[in-house]
Amino acid sequence: MTATTVVIESVGIQPRRRLAVIVSIVIVALLVVAVVASPFLQDAALHQDILSASLSPGAEGHPLGTDQLGRDVLLLTIAGTASAIVGPVVIAVGSMLLGILFGTLSGYRGGLLDGTVGRVTDILLALPVLLAAIVIGGVFGGGYWSVAALLVVLFCPTDIRIIRSAVIEQAPRPYVEAAQMLSLSRRRIMFGHILPNVRSLVITNMLLNVGFAMVTLSSLSYLGVGVRPGSADWGRQISDGREIMFTNPAAVLAPALLLIIATCAITVLGDWVGDRLAGDDEA
Amino acid sequence: MAWLLGQRLVGIVLVLFVISVLTFSLPHLAPGDLVRTLIGNRQVTPQLQEQIRAQYHLDDSLPVQYWDWLTNALHGDLGTSVQLQQPVSAVLADRRLPLTVALALLAFVVAVVTCIPLGVFAALRQRTALDTVSTTVALVGLSAPPFTIALALLYALAYYVPIFPVYGSGHGALDVLYHLLLPAAALAAGVGAMLMRITRTAMIRELDSDYVLAARGRGLSGRAVIGLALRNAAIPIVTSAGLVLTFLISGTIVVETIFSLPGLGQVLQNAVQYKDLPMLQGVTLVIAAAIAVIAMVADLIYLGLDPRVRSGRARS
């Protein structure tokens, strides 16, 4: 058993808390609204006004005060939601798709392909994701989406492994043998018959990956990798706002607390969906 | 056993080889003219360009360059920092590396000492208040980015209620420890959450198994039974060490910068900002190699813990 499966298993066992799930759904819904609204808020949020720089929370017209460039912290934080959420979702889905493709092929067909995929994932897994992303992203520069693409590559080995072992477990089952007997094409067996049977694992893993990707991407933007200076982004806001923590703590605390709340809500939802789907599979 | 050991050793050598090749090729793959990058802010003269080409053996073939670079690195020579014009290894060895190692170790010790017992307790008292509280705290520790937890702690315990220092690493052993406590606590939250959850799950599974029932039936004390179960539960805990370690080191790099601690994280961030490639290579090599080696040590401990693996039976 690999370390990753241990964590994923253990994530599923916390006491079912209806309240936590409902709160998480509300949080995620609000985040989605903020993501949809953020393109329309960019102009207002990035509006600089040096005269009203570093105002404390509660200043007139600025409930959370302003940062050192005089930008409204509340607007800036809402506008930064897109940067915090959209990338991680794309990373998780991209990494899941690669995981499905290579994991299923490698697990069902075995042989040389399996050996090659196995070695490559072994090596990629030995690289610490954040370190590799800082170094590669830092050296090659590139914007938000190149860093997101890099993270897809760094995230997918885990997905490939998890899906591969689930497919290997399914392969000797009677329904697969029956499909083989009917001489269905390998592609149809793999993606039409085996894949639906491992879907709960795939989806749970994808949801947990959204959380991991949020942590990684925000850490990167906090360190200044993959995000332009002056754009609306929570990580960026935290690194900029650290200088004015005394005059306006909200400039740092608003994005930091939102990151904590958002990642926790996503984990709770991931756990919950995982439990429900696992229940479906047993039934 | 010997065969397994050999296999692991070959694996680690392969991983270290790949890491070294990747690190070596960084400057060659980086966009822009390598000689110009290595000159940095200094005045560009044909003389200096010649000197740089000679110093980095840039006119040799790539395999020869790799070999030279690797032998130098193995002898502790990681090149010269472009930004600081000092040997990379000297910069790293002077406080940077020790500070990061101290912080990571402190966080690890705090996490192990508090969270493994907590995981065992949570498993013994399932669905009680303690279990609920600890799983909720673990949720935050496991989900949230370590640097946000660090910020929250920094604000609460250094700004709002000024108990701890805001930044810096202090002087003298005790003062350094005092400066490192808050960052270590922030890091331990994430690592501890992982350890606690893994311990809790493993303990619940072990306590449910037949041998525990048999031991209880034979009248062993509660304590002895927990000891038995804990030994088996230790296997997944140790197996997850690689994951925990990666989390710990990645976290350290980021959390350090929140507290303005002059460790490897700060060096890494500066090197990225100034495109200081030799420095970047040095830091990457040191961190990646350290992670690979410690992961292997954890693997060996695991081999020692599981008698089935030790005797070479079972497990494919």
UniProtKB/TrEMBL annotation, chain A:
The keyword Transport applies. It is a multi-pass membrane protein. Keywords: Cell membrane, Membrane, Transmembrane, Transmembrane helix, Transport. It is found in: Cell membrane. The chain crosses the membrane at residues 19-41, 73-102, 123-145, 206-225, 246-269. Gene3D superfamilies: MetI-like (1.10.3720.10). One of its GO terms (cellular component) is plasma membrane. Pfam families: BPD_transp_1. One of its GO terms (biological process) is transmembrane transport. The keyword S-adenosyl-L-methionine does not apply. Residues 85-270 form the ABC transmembrane type-1 domain. Belongs to the binding-protein-dependent transport system permease family. This is Putative ABC transporter, permease. It comes from Nostocoides japonicum T1-X7.
Automatic annotation (TrEMBL), chain B:
InterPro entries: BPD_transp_1_N, MetI-like, MetI-like_sf. Signal peptide: none annotated. One of its GO terms (biological process) is transmembrane transport. GO terms for cellular component: plasma membrane. It is found in: Cell membrane. The chain crosses the membrane at residues 9-30, 101-124, 136-161, 176-196, 233-259, 279-305. The keyword Cell membrane applies. It comes from the Bacteria. Keywords: Cell membrane, Membrane, Transmembrane, Transmembrane helix, Transport. It is a multi-pass membrane protein. It holds the Pfam family BPD_transp_1_N. Residues 97-302 form the ABC transmembrane type-1 domain. The keyword Cell membrane applies. CDD domains: TM_PBP2 (cd06261). Belongs to the binding-protein-dependent transport system permease family. This is Putative ABC transporter, permease.
